[in-house]
């Protein structure tokens, strides 16, 4: 299977082909163990992986490979892209788990996996509590995605043992960083901590590391990149990844649900102290506006917020200047990424593409 013809769309399609091929083989093996497991769990998991997603993480891994001098085609290039495609299974694990923990109803414009399982349980009038069944089955599916991610990554680089060992450094680090970031996110929701540094730290570990920084590191490691190249790509990746998270925070309040695939205000209802919210609260306190502080704090963690309520909170934060402040921070991060890339000796074709990706990743519209 050739890597891809050259365009971003071709790259995404090539990743999907690798995933489809791997999932078809593993699904066949699992179906031999239990046909119901294949029909009820694997089919849903396969649909989740193949029918959605921007293939952002494999894309950054591919350009990490190219930035470090990796060839655009050939057996090593194909192996690299196949290994990079395993990142989609890691993301599936993270998204399904995150949806369960947050109690989210929609993902990519369709019911979340735990909601699908719960609906199946409810429709069949099975014994027990539908919500608990749905959450348990979704966690099981997420676990399978993570197991298969390890298999796909390992098998892809079977013919490149030295590259595989180099790549295991970012691969392993990424998994731990994801878990720590999720822990910090859950804990901050429970504790109500409102320091400005915390959402940035959470964004770095929970989103930036596994979305951009470590995928770049992974591809570069497979190519045998120098420490200088790896360091520069990681700095670029951390900045772009954090900017990506800030854009997500803005889209959660100001986005179009038809484009984002989920209702607005999810972060508010779940009790997340995003940088947007923290900055708004700080300004309200500085203005000694106790009523606004109470209004904002009462909205955080309120699952009963209507769309009208969310739009009102979004307007308050905009009036406080928090929205503009986050946009400025986001712009600063993209500028930082550009500087890091310019100072790193990477292949020119990769430099151009990474500049484009930095822009496209963070300029998603509302």
From TrEMBL:
The keyword Cytoplasm does not apply. Signal peptide: none annotated. One of its GO terms (molecular function) is transferase activity. SUPFAM superfamilies: Terpenoid synthases. This is Polyprenyl synthetase family protein. Keywords: Magnesium, Metal-binding, Transferase. InterPro entries: Isoprenoid_synthase_dom_sf, Polyprenyl_synt, Polyprenyl_synt_CS. Belongs to the FPP/GGPP synthase family. It is an enzyme of class 2 (transferase). It holds the Pfam family polyprenyl_synt. Its EC number is 2.5.1.-. It comes from Marinactinospora rubrisoli. It comes from the Bacteria. The keyword Transferase applies. Its cofactor is Mg(2+).
